[in-house]
């Protein structure tokens, strides 16, 4: 059965698109037919991270407006079998996305028997972000271990629980997961970052993965590669673990070792 998963965040710059690229790539590497959709209309970046920006001819909005077929717009990844990208438009405004248009595209993708449909949401609470998670079965909220990022993540969780299709028409709530990105255990020990325990205490949703700070992320992005393909990097390994957990495999959390500090200790740097 197909799973529609949105990867979102309360604020920009937390590594959401990088996470979308790696999670989608990782699922495809596990033999799952996967498509990743860029919902960030006007500011697309997913094609750059996946190294296929020169192959974009038609986009998400072209399909919604029936200016191109879905098959014309989908880009098959050259490196990873089973991975496809539906890019965003760079020339349209964000109001070009409509609920009926998104629903039609998702229905077409479901008929194409994709195992996973990954929606790369723009940050915040704009129209594109809400439409990205509206039809989803599951949502992964990406946050950094800092108070402003976590506050914004908490706000987006409230919107997801009240404005998703499941909240309107189903007794089964949308599944929510937390992905903690750019984690640095040394900064946690120094009191400059919140610990995993602090973050989960505040947000109260299951932790699906911890991705440590790693220079390999920027290097891979500049090369047009999802960092999960760099199997020697700690970030790549962390994303691989995250994918395994999404597939129901029990993988212990790793890449963090911290001295426990309470929220008040962190706030007052004691």
From TrEMBL:
Keyword ATP-binding: yes
Keyword Nucleotide-binding: yes
One record GO biological process: division septum assembly
Gene3D superfamilies registered for this protein in UniProt: P-loop containing nucleotide triphosphate hydrolases (3.40.50.300)
Keywords: ATP-binding, Cell cycle, Cell division, Cell membrane, Membrane, Nucleotide-binding, Septation
List of residues binding ATP: 11-18
Domain AAA: 3-162
SUPFAM superfamilies: P-loop containing nucleoside triphosphate hydrolases
Chief location category: membrane
Signal peptide start-end: none
Topological category with respect to the lipid bilayer: Peripheral membrane protein
GO CC terms in record: cytoplasmic side of plasma membrane; cytosol
GO molecular function: ATP binding; ATP hydrolysis activity
Pfam families assigned to the protein according to its UniProt record, in alphabetical order: AAA_31
Compartmental location: Cell membrane
Assembly, per entry: Interacts with MinC and FtsZ.
Protein family per UniProt: Belongs to the ParA family. MinD subfamily.
Main function: ATPase required for the correct placement of the division site. Cell division inhibitors MinC and MinD act in concert to form an inhibitor capable of blocking formation of the polar Z ring septums. Rapidly oscillates between the poles of the cell to destabilize FtsZ filaments that have formed before they mature into polar Z rings.
Name of the protein this chain belongs to: Septum site-determining protein MinD
Originating species: Buchnera aphidicola
Gene name as annotated: minD
